[in-house]
Design goal:
alpha/beta, 6-stranded mixed β-sheet, two-stranded antiparallel ribbon, 5 helices, about 30% helix, binds guanosine-5'-triphosphate, Small_GTPase_Ras-type, P-loop_NTPase, Small_GTP-bd, Ras-related protein RSR1
Length: about 210
């Protein structure tokens, strides 16, 4: 339990096409290892305890299987926050997220539901097929959601994506508990503290939209 006495358990679903690195991202976050071989996921879930801004949270991370429809529906319902992952080496993997995001908004009936857009495999710059600008633009069109570029191989920006989605969930939780303090969905992305670390510089504009440049 943290100093604040706050403890919660949150379900985070990691969604995206097969092979984009969902399992590697999850393993790097939970166990601090990079797994080279490609072994398609059926369905896995992992627990991790972390502190976010002095609050203790337990994450139940659901590592999903590519675009398997049945399980996607289940994760949509269970998820309290989503990492939408594509590979920067695959334009189609970004396009496939458009439907997934629409499904989330429909299922949750909330266009400001906690989501982070993640461009993985940033170590493969020479094979880049999706420009930062294009991914960032998509994240903006989805209501200024955060966009990060990660490398599960190099452990770049891994903690950052999980912590970001956690912050969004906590903020929603607090806003629900204290609606009079004006934590409505539209204010949640306005101001964020600048964080160090991960080698990533973070850029914000006044609307709170941002892109991570590695
Ligand atoms: N270079 C590089 N390769 C990566 C990275 N992340 C994952 N990979 C490789 O990409 C392949 C697929 O990774 P997975 O994590 O299994 O992908 P997934 O999205 O979980 O795939 P499914 O289980 O089929 O949905 C593996 O060979 C990984 O080693 C990364 O950041 N950089």
């Amino acid at each position: 339990m943290s100093r604040s006495g706050y403890q919660r358990e949150y379900h985070i679903a990691v969604l995206g096409s097969g092979g984009v690195g969902k399992s590697c991202l999850t393993m790097q976050f939970v166990q601090g290892v990079f797994v080279e071989r490609y072994d398609p996921t059926i369905e896995d879930s992992y627990r991790k305890h972390i502190d976010v801004d002095g609050r203790h949270v337990v994450l139940e991370i659901m590592d999903t299987a590519g675009t398997e429809q049945f399980s996607t529906d289940m994760y949509m319902r269970l998820g309290q926050g989503f990492l939408l992952v594509f590979s920067i080496t695959s334009a189609s993997s970004l396009r496939e997220l458009i439907d997934l995001r629409e499904q989330i908004v429909r299922t949750k009936n909330d266009p400001t539901f906690p989501i982070v857009l993640v461009g993985n495999k940033s170590d493969l710059e020479e094979d880049r097929a999706v420009s930062r600008a294009k991914a960032f633009q998509l994240s903006q069109s989805w209501g200024n959601i955060p966009y990060y570029e990660t490398s599960a191989r190099r452990a770049t920006n891994i903690n950052e994506v999980f912590i970001d989605v956690c912050r969004q969930i906590i903020r929603k939780d607090l806003a629900r508990a204290r609606p009079e303090e004006g934590g409505g969905g539209h204010t949640r992305r306005r101001r964020r503290r600048r964080r160090a670390g991960g080698g990533g510089g973070r850029h914000e504009d006044e609307g709170g939209s941002r892109c991570v440049i590695l």
